[in-house]
Amino acid sequence: MEDRLQVADGLVPQKIVSVHLQESTLKALKGQASNEQAQILQRNPEPSVESKLEPDVMEHVCGHDLQALGARPAQGKDGGSGSEPAEEGDRGGGSVEHGHLHLSSCHECLELENSTIESVKCASAEKIPDLPYDPSGSLEDIADDISPDREGRTVNITGRAPNILFYVGSASQESLGRFQEVRSVLADCVDTERYTLYHLSRESALRDPWSDNCLLLVIATREAIPEDLSKKFTAYLSQGGKVLGLCSPFTLAGVRVASKSVLRDTVQNLVFSKADQTQVKLSVLSSGSVYEEGPGGQLSLGGLQGHLENEDKDRLIVQVPFGPRGGEAVLCQAHLELPPSSSVVQVQGDFNLLKSSNARRYEVLREILTTLGLNCDLRQAPALTPLYLLPAALEIWDPLMQWLGRHAGPEGVIRSSKLSLKFLPSYTSDVEITPSALPVVTDVESFFSEHFNLETYRQNLQTQRLGKVVLFTEVTPTTMNLLDGLLFEIPPEMGLIAIAARQTQGRGRGSNAWLSPMGCAVFTLLVSIPLRSALGQRIPFVQHLMSLAVVEAVRTVPEYQDIDLRVKWPNDIYYSDLMKLGGVLVHSTLLGETFYILIGCGFNVSNSNPTICVNDLVTEYNRRHWAELKPFRTDELIARTVTVLEKLIRTFQDKGPNGVLPLYYKYWVHSGQRVRLGSLDGPEVWIVGLDDSGFLQVQQEGGEVVTVHPDGNSFDMLRNLIVPKQQ
């Protein structure tokens, strides 16, 4: 459709479907079409032409006959026809000008119009399937290959389709890769339900009326822009268009690109000024070019600017207004489009700096795109999905079903203060799902998820109790609530675990939110600990054991021992001492002589943005050491983590803190770390270890060792602040 097919009044079709009609229906429609055709031909000033014309001549008059049928040619901006000459391969036998929609004969037009009207009358929208898309063609067509489904696309008030176009230079394999990487990062920033993202080739840029449909033109080629193409882009700006230049030689009057080779492919500190005059400081990869004032007078810039923290304060980002119609360009010589794992980044230290700034890189990109008129609001939360009850061990299924029969009541419902679980043999769309009422499907055979493979989980789970019964869901508010009604009732040997592919209301410590996108391992594990046991007397150690279990789950896999995953006191999982990629939240309830503990855990496995994940570390390790370690799956790592946790709990119960602390110290980030107590002006102390209850011990200058504890988020490793423990 190329986004140029329109019907009357400029409406843009969203989908074209074919509808199969039975033979009897076709005959009836044919007769109806013949009668209506005869009536229309009587009103036509030249009714006898159709019966006398040859097929190729009929093509010439088809456009006029369409007007007789009530279809109007699309109007251009000057009030004339909006049609364009077709390519030779589309013209058929003659050289004719086609409208937006051209059919081979008036008779076929009538039949198609009538049959389509009747088909739409009879067809339910729910019965029309989404038809598969079959991409084909060269680099010029690759946008179709990877563009999102066009269903749900909106059209702005000017009637233009909301497209983002990418010009990446000549048609080559390198350009294809460039298009994919730039498109990928912008798709992470904008609401892709509102826009379609396409490749714009040089030929199409010169030939097609792309500017009518373009909300943003992204120029991301390092090649010189041909003069004829530069004029096209400038004309687009003069009409009020928006341009984003990414490490491109494209400039406008008053601005020129100057080479500064000493900066090329180096990591630099950038100060970015937002539209509200606030600043963002981040590390960026420089292209080796900067913007300077060009010939023709003083440079007039917009509010968005970015300069390096060097002596020259080199400009890497400029906003340039253009023309009286609101056109503007944001030009950038920092590689905001490249991830920290790019092959351009060769040094481990550079990777660390760029990864630490990755969230701010996205902040800067969203600020630029928003200023250029795009919507970068967070996407609407996905709909909740039913839970599935899954056995990790087959022998536990019958006892579990018997237990449910005794506790679920006649309606199959188990209620708690937070939600109710309704156990059903199967799920149908009429079953309501709300945050407080969730269906639980017990038919294991009907379960399938691309995000959780039960067999993979089973193969990696080697426990006696923990994690044996799985409650899995694709989308849930938070896994911490799912086990609430089962907490004190279900037998400990059934080892409940709730796993979600995605959380919409994940929680961290205090009032913090924990974002849980796809690719994040998210689960809540039920653990019961006897009060009169080594761990029962030192419950704060539970969070340390969980954090340690995540690290061990990765680093005990053969050949993965050097993946730099670590623990940060009291409950975080870190990449080296640089970036957090996971955390632990523990809720414990003492009932009688038993602690019932819900351990919530979330850590990034394959979701690289906006921060970092385990598979980033694996990829980076492979690149540095010419290795071929495979990435992890979330189901695999969850099962391995639960397995390691059970072993750590057993060791702690047998040997106490000293049984696990050597391993904890091996992986923690605080060895020899100096921190300040209470405030930036507080006394400096050295972290020496954990006390018998799991709190942090520090040594003061006089040699005295004192215990400190976390107070919400007061312990901030980046600021080196901790607070003394209150007695």
From TrEMBL:
CDD domains reported for this sequence: BPL
Q: Which GO terms describe its cellular component?
A: cytoplasm
Query: What are the GO MF terms of this UniProt record?
Result: biotin--[biotin carboxyl-carrier protein] ligase activity
Annotated region (Disordered), positions in chain: 70-98
Q: Which residues form the BPL/LPL catalytic domain?
A: 455-653
UniProt-listed Gene3D superfamilies: Bira Bifunctional Protein, Domain 2 (3.30.930.10)
InterPro entries per the UniProt record, alphabetical: aa-tRNA-synth_II/BPL/LPL, Biotin_CoA_COase_ligase, BPL_C, BPL_LPL_catalytic
Swiss-Prot/TrEMBL keywords? Ligase
Q: Which domain of life does this protein belong to? A: Eukaryota
One Pfam annotation reads BPL_C
Question: What NCBIfam families does the record tag this protein with?
Answer: birA_ligase
Q: Which family does it belong to?
A: Belongs to the biotin--protein ligase family.
- Put simply, this protein is called Holocarboxylase synthetase
Gene source species:
Suricata suricatta
